[in-house]
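Weekly modeling sync, notes
Attendees: S.R. (lead), two postdocs, one rotation student

Agenda item 3: backlog of single-chain predictions. S.R. asked that every request posted to the team notebook include the full sequence so nobody has to chase files. The rotation student volunteered to paste the first one in as an example of the format we agreed on. Action items at the bottom.

Example entry:
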Amino acid sequence: MTITSRLNSTFIPFAISLLLLCSWKVSVTLRSREASGLARQIQNNSTEVVMSRKFVMDGSDDILPIIALGVATHVVFHKYEPTRSTLGATLLFLAIEPSLPYLYFLYRANSESLSVTSFLSAGISSLLFRSYIIFYITLAVSIACYRLSPFHPLARVPGPTIHKITKLWGVWWCWKGQQHILNKQLHDKYGPVVRTGYTVRQDLRAPKNLLAITGEEHANRRRLWNRGMSSDALVEYEETLKRRCRDLVDALRKQSAEGVLDIGKWLNYFTFDFMGDMAFGGGSDMVKNGRDKDGLWKELKGFGLVRAILSHIPWAFSLAHIAPYTSRQLLVFREYGMACAASRVKQGSHVKDLWYHLTDEAGLEKSKPPMSNVLADGIVAVIAGADTVSEAMTGILWLLISHPECYKRVEEEVDRMYPQGEDLQEDFDTARLGKMIYLNACINESLRLFPPVMTNGPRQVPFGGGGRVICGYFLAEGTQVYVPPYTMHRNPQYFSPEPDSFIPERWLSPVDSAHNINQNAFIPFSYGPANCVGKNLARMQMTMLVTVLLRNFTLEFAHGFEWENWPMRMKDFFVVARDPLQVKITPRSATEF
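Predicted structure, as returned to the notebook:
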């Protein structure tokens, strides 16, 4: 469990800055008479007087107001972090603030008829430069001291010093795509609870999709999703899933003539096509086209990296809307969603897809959901649903191919349930999928080792309850808590023996006493009321896909492909980025599907 806090404890730095400002005010008052007389001497180029220690801005005793401003600025930013709407004002404030004491004396000099040229030539420019250096050093030191102090709400929580001071270290690991590795290393060293940050705040301007809302609004929106992911709704989706599986089999048969292909790329195409069907009634045919002609997958992976980095500096997340690179990515998906939504509206309500439920075409709600909400949720369904299932499927295939004995056992189970020679074009009995015990054990074990979202998103200690005690540590209201599945799933306390090994037998029933499994620690789809609403649809896709692929093809790693270290090349950018999975596919028979 990794935690950051957003408690606004400002009394101590505020008190310090108040004392410093008061002392500066006294100093300015006592010396105001001297300044008036010295101004005339500066006008006469009396440099000896200017540089004397009697000059009001001679240096040493005027560091105090700059230090006061630095500490006071920390107080302000501690309570009010910048957002998209205040960015310009914040930068202007930081640029001008260190010069305020000197601007004040410049104003006094002007009132005494002192020329600006004489004022600057008296060494004020060098003092001004020094004030900026002192100000920014003071601001940085004040921030660091508070974050390391015993007065910080997370002071008792163990963690690396660098993480307590700045999130830039986490940003660096995000950039490398190894935050899942970092989290595991930190927990191995510090224990079940690790402090990985200081203060974070959510941006109230975040996009209003199901992932970005909480409380009653989340419950209302979730109700529509729950209808769309109910067991009855999943039955309605089966025909669409079968049709897309046939498209994939046909495409792979054609590609098998070339011998080697990146199976992960084709799984990307499949899941995007299918989730487009679910969310918008169609609009994507990547499998049939054999390519991502609009570059949507490239934009998706690029935005995943940006999102992962900005999760460490959430006040800057809204800036993604104005940055050229990320604004283009957001625009691409918005335009895609709007085009698909317009097409789906024309189709009417004869298709009971996910859109049917999100728009409440059945009329079960008191009022129709706003189209902006439906559009945002539809885009989330395509992006989140397509990527997670695709990456999970790629992980399953790598594990099966790299463990031939497991591959053979799953293949035998598939042939038992769906014998070769049986025509499945007209009648694919999906009820048999639930009876494939070993296949489902392999899927569970794959999701444990390669969860589709390795780090997961944060939860927050709710306001109004006075905080919570977790694992012996008190967490104040507003503290954000991360429970990274990759770390949890490889903890020997919950999964043993050999938590880093692929052992599907640990999931077989009755549970083998030789294997320790804590089902509560198995969270590939997160946990609780904010878990992945589409987990049952995801499992249905994975089970059917593995069955169809192993029934129709023999899969093996391509000659010369360095498959052993393939998992180590995975990147955690919130979404998973991975190298191509090069396989050789050979049709098993002439029977299709």
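Discussion: group reviewed the output briefly. The two ends are 44 Å apart (CA to CA).
Action items: rotation student to repeat for the remaining queue; S.R. to check formatting next week.
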